[in-house]
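Record format v2
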Amino acid sequence: MSFYYARKGIRRLPGIVIKAASIPDPEVTEGFGSRAQTGLICKAAGIKSVLLVTDANLYKLGFYEKVKSSIEEQGIACSVFSNISSEPDLDIIEEGRNAAEICNADCIVALGGGSVMDSCKIIAASAKHPSRSVRHFLHKFAVVPDKTLPMISIPTTAGTGAEYTVGAVVKDSHGIKRSTVVIGLDVIHVILDSELMISAPQSVTVWCGIDALSHGLEGIAADVHSSFDDTKKSFECVRLVFQNLPLLLEEPGNIEARQHMSRAAFYGGNAINKQLAGYVHAFAHSIGAEYHIPHGEAIAYCIVPVMEAQKELCRERLAALSLFCGFAKKSDSHEKAADAFLAELKALLTRCGLKHGCEALREEDYDRLVEMIDSDSINYSPPKTFRDEEIRKILDRIRKGD
Ligand SMILES: [Fe+2]
């Protein structure tokens, strides 16, 4: 049973809840090599002892060294915890919290991708409240009294926006992924350093970039009342990806384009925090989980079929976005401008090397996938609530690449 009317009834609820939540509003430092300023940022914030958290691969690459030395140069203690895995679980988070306690950390510096960022959110929450078990912070909404420890985020990929989104995904003691909204997350600063992204494999650059674009686009389409500032950031997120991702396919070492992509991802994070995602993410999460397809690639398969299925409801917004990106003229009808945007999106995905149709997707799995998509979609504020038959049609389009 799909509980269509129940889902339809609560469609706006996540948007209302998120408006009431306290959202981080970090300062931003950006530029090639800008992580060398971490120490000065810590000093200005009155930090005395830092736990620098990263993962084993990044540790081996030595990316943390410039951060650590800049902190120590300011006379601030810095301990390194590098055990975060690609799918962090409670044990690792507990280890991280213990490391924070041992060094008496009053700040967590997160250096890494989405897994490191999400782990640090729970570490920063639980280290502030050591009398509570780490498990306590894995509820759907983890309310952290007096905020988490301050966190400084240094993302190494340009895509998830996890550097300051309030959501975190970690595995519980049964190995099941739990998604938590950390109410009271205190990200005080984000450092966007393109030097960390310059040698990323092309697949990472591409699919993370498409993920960032999807955050801006779903934010624009969401059924949430947005401020002018938030809407502008989401528009800018999408435009920056269109302008810079193709450049990086030709010139992966283009520093300016890398900086722009990290800014796009940051704006995408704002969209997730303030406007929420939608069905593109519900489809991609379900297909990604079922067939072990990386998040950004799953997004790439889903984004056009899902947006086309919602086009009637957000035609004006797509038309405005199309004009903003330079894909349409003022004199164009909304229909023509929205179609021009979707055509440019398809062309970008083709240029990025997206295969025609998702071969892994199987018709015999549709029942399970529909249930997963129905269930995940209630976390977002999409412009409409799909019936199960509509979801099946979209799955068909994703599978065939129509
Ligand atoms: Fe995403």
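The radius of gyration is 21 Å.
The beta strands are 27-30, 49-55, 77-84, 107-112, 141-143, 151-155, 167-171, 177-183, 187-192.
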